[in-house]
Design brief:
The chain is α/β, with parallel strands linked by helices. The protein has one domain (5-152, 214-236). 28% of the residues lie in helices and 20% in strands. It has six helices and eleven strands. It has helices at 27-43, 64-72, 87-96, 102-117, 135-142, 171-176; strands spanning 5-6, 15-20, 48-53, 80-83, 147-150, 153-156, 191-194, 204-205, 209-211, 223-228, 231-236. It has a six-stranded mixed sheet with strand order 1-11-10-2-3-4, covered by helices on one side. A five-stranded mixed sheet has the order 5-6-7-9-8, with no helix packed on it. Helix 3 crosses helix 4 (102-117).
């Protein structure tokens, strides 16, 4: 049973959200997390469940390709699944699109491990990468959403820029922002549930945000916040 406490926002009656932080190629932890979510849903049924993955599925960890395949075909028993774009997926797509200097930037930020997981030789030219990564997996990455809104929460990879309405946020901020978002203490358009900035060992809960990147690929934990009504709890593996 997930231990619950008061949350900074709420969901409509009958809804439950499981939001999972940055995976970064840690497939074994993701599989264990999915099993625990399915177990919790079986123990506490009768809700409309949504599992939200908050982005950064690839890079640095041992099996980025396996993580993407799992997200394309998630296990049964999870309810609705929402997959959001992270800045690492954005870097890969920019590299595949041939952006100036994009390949070098992505490789410097953990892309080498991702290429290895797809079986791409380390010295393969960037222009050949797209032909060596399954087309269905590239299409999945291109189709990722930037945000998910449910009840009093906004789910997004990095955060939002304070002082701007949701429809005024830029893609770059949604995927990359740290400051002034992280230190901002005022009200935001919704309570933001995000990853992107490792804040291990425990998720960070503020009045205006919940930070869910607890450094799984850095030797920390993969974390999930469980939201229902005006309560929240956490699962970590």
């Amino acid at each position: 049973m997930v231990t619950q406490r008061l949350a900074p926002a709420s969901l409509p009656p009958g809804e439950r959200v499981y939001a999972i932080g940055d995976v970064h190629g840690c497939l074994d932890q993701l599989d264990e997390m999915h099993q625990l979510i399915a177990k919790d849903l079986a123990a506490r049924p009768g809700v409309r469940a949504t599992v939200v993955h908050l982005g950064d599925y690839i890079d640095r960890g041992p099996d980025s390709a396996g993580v993407i395949r799992r997200l394309i075909a998630p296990p049964a028993g999870l309810g609705r699944v929402v997959n959001l774009m992270g800045n690492h997926e954005d870097m890969l797509l920019d590299a595949l699109n041939g952006g100036r200097g994009a390949a070098e930037i992505w490789l410097h930020n953990g892309g080498v491990a991702s290429l290895e997981s797809w079986g791409v030789p380390p010295r393969q030219r960037p222009k050949d990468w797209a032909g060596m990564i399954p087309a269905t997996e590239i299409a999945f990455l291109r189709g990722l959403s930037l945000t998910h809104r449910q009840g009093g929460y906004l789910f997004v990879h990095a955060g939002v820029r304070p002082g701007k309405a949701l429809d005024e946020q830029t893609e770059h901020d949604l995927l990359w922002i740290r400051e002034p978002f992280l230190s901002f203490e005022g009200a935001l358009p919704a309570v933001v549930v995000h990853g992107h900035t490792p804040e291990e060992p425990q998720p960070v809960v503020r009045a205006n945000r919940i930070g869910m990147d607890t450094g799984a690929v850095l030797g920390g934990m993969l974390s999930c916040v469980v939201l229902e009504a005006d309560r929240m709890g956490f699962i970590q593996v």
